[in-house]
Design a protein that fits this description.
Layout lengths: L1 E5 L4 H12 L3 E6 L12 E4 L13 E6 L5 H11 L3 E9 L34 H16 L3 E6 L1 E3 L7 H9 L12 E2 L1 E3 H8 L5 E4 L5 E2 H9 L30 H6 L6 H13 L10
Parallel strand pairs: 1-2, 1-4, 2-3, 4-5, 5-6, 6-10, 7-9
Antiparallel strand pairs: 8-11
Helix pairs in contact: 1-5, 2-3, 4-8, 6-8
InterPro entries: NAD(P)-bd_dom_sf (IPR036291)
Protein name: NAD-dependent dehydratase
Organism: Kribbella antibiotica
């Protein structure tokens, strides 16, 4: 398959490209060439900016996977250039698109966030992250119809990724894990490698690509199990980032993704690999916000 990846040299994008190459796909990268430019030296690279995707007008691909779509205007420009140049458009979205953040068990038909009146569509702002992803999903669906996929995910764990990096680092260094949540706080996450594999599946529509919901204490115990004599968890961090009103976002229904082919590795395997990666001298990146 001729695959175009927008981004592809950091965090989850690295896993997508690695998985695509492992499967024998013909990969082209489109990015600014400023992040990890030496990665994938044998892969064709088109250097350009999302604000001006005209360099993509000379190629054709079976699929595009958009890993860097944050600004609505930029995604719209990419869609216009690629409308007749790609067979299918897969967009990396977020579980933050849902209006209801309380009710457990929501599937992909849940109500989505509205676009704030007067909000700019030509810049990235964290307060517009969810609404921007919603608007991008809608724009792509209007452009490509059934030839588009929206992959909605939350915490993404694993090498090159920041989520739960503090846990991996603590276990690797023999210090106490800390958690900014209640022990009973529900949580869902996905290993970056499992998410990358799903992004390469030939599916259409929206998908909640998350693992099973479980209490934070249960997940912490699974991670601690990979290191003998791991120290007790510190449940009293300086900053509380989790709130009751967000519990529903970590109890989403992932049945549609599982039916479409999502495969999830055990928590202990994800933790063991993350700890090994850190012990090899790697450092998790800082969270994006």
């Amino acid at each position: 398959m001729r695959l175009l990846v927008l981004g592809g040299t950091k965090n989850l994008g690295r896993h997508v490209v690695e998985a695509a190459l492992r499967l024998g796909h013909d990969v082209t990268l489109f990015n600014r060439g400023t992040t990890n430019p030496s990665l994938f030296p044998d892969v064709r690279r088109i250097v350009g900016d999302r604000a001006d995707p005209s360099a993509l007008a000379a190629g054709e691909w079976d699929r595009v996977i958009d890993m860097s779509g944050l600004v609505v205007r930029d995604v719209g420009l990419s869609a216009e250039v690629l409308r007749d140049r790609v067979g299918h458009y897969t967009f990396m979205s977020t579980i933050g698109v849902y209006t209801d953040k309380v009710t457990p068990g929501q599937d992909e038909s849940g109500a989505l966030l509205p676009w704030p009146v007067g909000a700019p569509d030509n810049e990235f702002r964290m307060d517009l992250y969810g609404p921007s992803k919603v608007r991008c999903e809608s724009l792509l669906a209007a452009t490509f119809g059934s030839r588009t996929t929206a992959v909605r995910s939350g915490f993404v764990v694993g090498p090159y990724n920041p989520d739960f990096g503090n846990w991996g680092t603590a276990l690797a260094q023999g210090t106490r894990m800390e958690c900014a949540a209640r022990p009973g706080q529900p949580v869902q996450y996905v290993d970056a490698r499992d998410l990358a594999d799903f992004l390469l599946l030939e599916v259409s529509g929206a998908f909640n690509v998350v693992g099973p919901s479980q209490p934070m204490a249960e997940l912490a115990a699974a991670w601690q199990s990979v290191v003998p004599a791991a120290l007790p968890m510190d449940w009293e961090p300086a900053v509380d980032r989790f709130h009751l009103e967000d519990d529903g976002l970590f109890q989403l229904d992932n049945a549609r993704a599982l039916e479409a082919g999502l495969r999830l590795r055990p928590d202990a395997e994800a933790a063991r690999d993350y700890v090994a990666w850190i012990r090899d001298g790697n450092v998790p990146p800082d969270p994006p916000h």
